[in-house]
Every structure is written in C-alpha cells, then in structure tokens.
Design a protein that fits this description.
The chain is an alpha+beta fold. It has 14 helices and 16 strands. The chain has three domains: about 200 residues, Up-down Bundle (Multidrug efflux transporter AcrB transmembrane fold), CATH 1.20.1640; about 70 residues, Alpha-Beta Plaits (2-Layer Sandwich); about 150 residues, Gyrase A, domain 2. A hairpin with a 3-residue loop joins strand 3 and strand 4. It is elongated and about 105 Å long.
Length: about 450
C-alpha cells in the first residue's frame, strides 16, 4: 500500500479501537451513554427567580448565574448524576434530574432557598389559634412536621451566614435515636452564638428555622451555658444540632442545602414534569428496537442492491454507529428520544454518502478506466456534493443546538455527531476499502457492445 493508504488505515484503526474502548461494556444502553429524562424517567423543574424586576440586566444575569452555581454545588454534593441545568430567558432556570424517583426530594434540593435563622421562642402551642401576637414584629411559624407552632420575633438572633459546615450523622444516644444534622460555626459565628446563649435563660427555647419552617427548638440547659461561659467560642463551635425524626437521607439532604449556602433570591417552581421509571424503561426498549431494526434493514438492503459495494457501505455504517455512540460517551452528552430519531436519520445519511460515491465510481469504471483511476476520479467528482450536503446539515445541527431547547437539542447533538462521522467514514474508510482491498475489483464493468 502507498503511504496515504497506510495513513488511512492507521487513522481508521485508531478510531475503531478508541470507540470500542469508550463503549465497553457495550450493554445495557444506560451503562454506555447518559440517558435523558424521557428515556429513564426522572424530574423536570422550571424555576423562576423572584424579585428581579427592579434589577439591572447585568444584575439579573449575575443572580441567575449564582443560582445555577449553587444548584450545581447541591447536586454535586448530594451525588445526583447527569443533572442538566440551564438558564431560560432572564429569570428562569430549567433543571432536569434523570433517574430521580422522588420529585419532592428534587424540589427540596433545588428549590430550597436555605435561609437559616436562629430565633428565640416566645411561646409554643399545638395550634396557631392558641398563639397571639402582642407585637407586629412577631411571627407564628410551624414545625416541619406540623405538630407544633411557635411564636417568635421576626428579627433573628443569628443567621446561617456564620456557618462553616453541616454534616448528617446518626445518633449513638439510645434516648434520642435517629439521624441529625451537626452544625459547625466559623469563629465569628461561634463568638456570636456565645453572645446569644448569654442572652437566653435556662429553659428558654431557641428555634432553628430554615426558610420560615422550624426544624428544631431545643431548650437551653445549664450545661450548655456553663460550656459557653467556660470554654467560650471553641466550646460551642460544633455543638449545635438540628434534630427532628429525620431519616439519614433526609438529614443528608438538609445538610447539603445548608452547606451550599442560601440562594441569592427566592425561587418558585412554575412547571414540574415527572416521568416514571416504567415509562422510561418502555421508552428505552422502543427506542433501542427502532435503532436496531432500521440498522439491520439497511445492512440487509445494501448488499442486495449494490452487491459487494453494499458490504463496503455496511462496514462504513457500522463504524459510524460506533463513532456516534462513543462520541456521546466521550462528551458526556445525553441521549433522548429525539436523539434516537437523529441516530436513525444518520443511518440513512451514512449509506446515502456511500451511494453517491459508488455511482460516480461505477461511471468511471464503465468508461473503461482502471480500478484505482475509477476510485480516484469517483471520489474527486463526488467530493463537492458530499461536502456541501454534509456541511450544510452540520450547520443546521449547530443552529438547532444553540437556539433549541430540550428535545431539539437532543436531536441536534446526535444529528451533528452522525453527520461528522458519516463524512469521515465516506472519505476515509470507504476509500480505504475500495483502494486497498479486493472490493474495488468487484465494481461492475459495462463491456462495449460488438459492432
């Protein structure tokens, strides 16, 4: 083989082995590529930031960017995989959580403002009707389980800005079993917390409030005041806890929200979509069957119509499918139902490129030219048509990806990757097979008619 043929062989082999390595273990599909909300189920939330009307455009953008940054911290710390976050317009954020089984959990994790406050309890009762405001600067807040209500001053004694960390832990005290959240203050916060304890008397209750809901309201004991008096800020730095009959997962969720900090503004869930795992599994099955059936039908049709050249097209098509799925894996892209439609369209476009090449090569061969001359001239004459068609399609895919949303983006991703792989397979792999193997000798020749 000539030097350029060796180069084509080396590039093809490198691409093939890279694709196989990326796609291992090949099955099931959800272990190979990230699946979108419509394929594996999950939760989609559309959040709208509040109180942005009076802000300058630059401030609104900064606020939305800060929201997305905090959301990213929360989902990363909580361990949710493949979560998609993106701004929509000037005041909205779309959140897709594939695989999430509990929409309430996703709503809490993403939508919780996480304003933590410590307020003195004036009075507590089992019903808000039994509490009476004696001052307009007082609030009545409910416990997170709804079992108790608290009359508290509107002005907090301490806020969550002074927190250094929050961790979920399991109690080892048999008298108070279950999970809890351990809070750790920074030095400034611990010093201010000591001042709070000095203002409170033994028996007073201090409500720990998150977004207007009381999660616990422990009573101040003599021992706590003694520790604060004797050891100062170091004695209370990591002694504060939030209890409340949590499961460990609930405590962990709360600790993640507290660690990531408060949102810069309140957000409201204005749209919510939940796709069940059963529907997602059915979508995977149907989508996979659609890809497999269309792929096999094209593989069978090409040799029937083009004989040996059809086998060349089949090789190019198989490699392009490997390239496409490997690119999805390498880029961390998400496969959706519209993305599957893009894959099926790619199957047709891949063999279409080969059909154009085959027809040009056959024309040259029938004109009496040698195999190598026919292949060389055939590729030369079909190059402009191939490049023009694929480049314009690729540009369309890029525009769809940049301007589209949700399903349109999924379609654009697979279409764009498929077009790029199709062009590579047509110009490199197909040419390699026609020039360097016996397939070129199988090109039909129309013999001249005798006089």
């Amino acid at each position: 083989m000539r030097r350029n043929e060796w180069m084509r062989l080396g590039v093809t082999a490198a691409v093939l082995f890279a694709a196989l390595g990326l796609l291992f273990p090949f099955w099931p599909l959800q272990d190979v590529v990230n699946l979108g909300l419509d394929l594996q189920g999950g939760v989609r939330l559309m959040l709208q930031a509040q109180d942005l009307e009076d802000m300058e455009p630059a401030q609104r953008r900064d606020t939305v960017d800060r929201l997305i940054q905090i959301f990213n911290q929360r989902v990363d710390q909580y361990g949710l995989a493949n979560v998609e976050l993106r701004p929509v317009g000037e005041d909205r954020v779309e959140v897709r959580v594939p695989g999430a089984q509990d929409p309430e959990e996703a709503r809490f994790l993403i939508g919780q403002t996480a304003i933590l406050e410590f307020r003195r309890v004036i009075e507590a009762a089992g019903s808000p009707d039994n509490l009476f405001r004696t001052d307009p600067t007082q609030d009545i807040l409910r416990a997170h389980d709804g079992a108790e209500f608290y009359l508290v001053p509107r002005e907090p004694m301490l806020t969550g800005e002074v927190l250094d960390s929050a961790e979920a832990r399991m109690s080892t005290d048999p008298r108070q079993p279950g999970a809890f959240v351990s809070l750790r203050f920074n030095r400034t916060g611990a010093e201010r917390f000591v001042e709070v304890l000095r203002q409170l008397r033994v028996g007073d209750r201090l409500a720990i409030v998150l977004d207007g809901v009381v999660y616990s309201a422990p009573a101040i004991t003599e021992s706590i005041k003694e520790v604060a008096q004797r050891a100062g800020w170091r004695g209370v730095q990591d002694e504060t806890t939030i209890t409340g009959a949590f499961t460990f997962d609930e405590a962990r969720l709360l600790s993640v929200v507290l660690r990531s900090g408060a949102l810069p503004t309140e957000v409201v869930v204005i749209e919510e979509q939940t796709v069940g795992p059963t529907l997602g599994a059915d979508s995977i099955r149907r989508g996979t069957m659609a890809i497999v059936i269309s792929f096999l039908l094209v593989l069978l049709y090409m040799p029937v119509y083009y004989r040996w050249l059809g086998l060349v097209a089949d090789v190019a098509l198989t490699l392009n499918m490997l390239i496409l799925f490997a690119a999805l894996r390498a880029l961390g892209a998400t496969l959706t139902l519209p993305g599957i439609a893009g894959i099926i369209l790619t199957i047709g476009m891949t063999v279409d490129a080969n059909v154009i090449i085959f027809e040009r090569v056959k024309e040259e061969r029938r004109a009496g030219k040698s195999v190598k001359a026919s292949v060389l001239n055939g590729f030369s004459k079909s190059l402009s048509a191939l490049v023009d068609a694929n480049i314009t399609t690729l540009i369309t895919a890029v525009i769809l990806f940049m301007l589209g949303t949700g399903p349109v983006e999924g379609f654009a991703v697979t279409l764009g990757l498929g077009v790029a792989g199709s062009l590579f397979c047509a110009l490199v792999v197909t040419r390699l097979l026609l020039e360097s193997t016996g397939f070129g000798e199988r090109i039909p020749v129309k013999l001249p008619s005798s006089a």
